[in-house]
Amino acid sequence: MNFISIVLNYLWKKSAEHTLKLFGWSLVAELPPVQKYIMIGAHHTSNWDFPLILLMMAALGLRLHWVGKDSLFKGPKGKVFRGLGGVPVERGAKKNFVAQMVDMYNERKKMVITISPEGTRRGSDHWKTGFYHIAQGAKVPVAMAFLDYSRKSIGIGGYFYPTGDMEADIGVFQKFYADKIGKNPLQQGEVRFLPRKDK
Length: 199
What we know:
Blueprint: H1 3-22, E1 26-30, E2 36-42, H2 49-59, E3 66-69, H3 76-83, E4 86-89, H4 97-107, E5 111-115, H5 130-138, E6 142-148, E7 153-160, H6 166-177
Parallel strand pairs: 1-7, 2-5, 2-6, 3-4
Antiparallel strand pairs: 6-7
Helix pairs in contact: 1-2, 4-5
């Protein structure tokens, strides 16, 4: 990274910090002490969440990375989506989504992917488990990002390494997000995993 890029990144970081403070938001920064992890966020209940998350990421010095199907990255738009932090995953490949993501983590020295376990801003009765299995397979922590409109607090409030005991581990997430209130509380999803079908 050259000097100009360093200066621009610093100015963007400070600008984001100032903007959050200007609107009354406090920033929490309890990030994992490693360069590879998965970042989840809850509760996602409003379109206003996205610009706030972008400001949070900038203020923490992070770049938003997200996963999309490989067809989104074909042609000229592919460069645009990659520039916006997109990471393509091949649909219909021999390896499923989780296996492809684990390979990506194993191949890279630095990687932070953002995943919304709720999957929707309109509420869900359970969390999707992909992030959990990726973190366990790649042996990386899950960073817990949040938006708490009741306290106007935003950031990453800690991290957790999955143990493989999903019933116990969901309790960690339930405890952390229990007092975090989204912009539209009635649309908050339930923090739980669906029971495994092989039981």
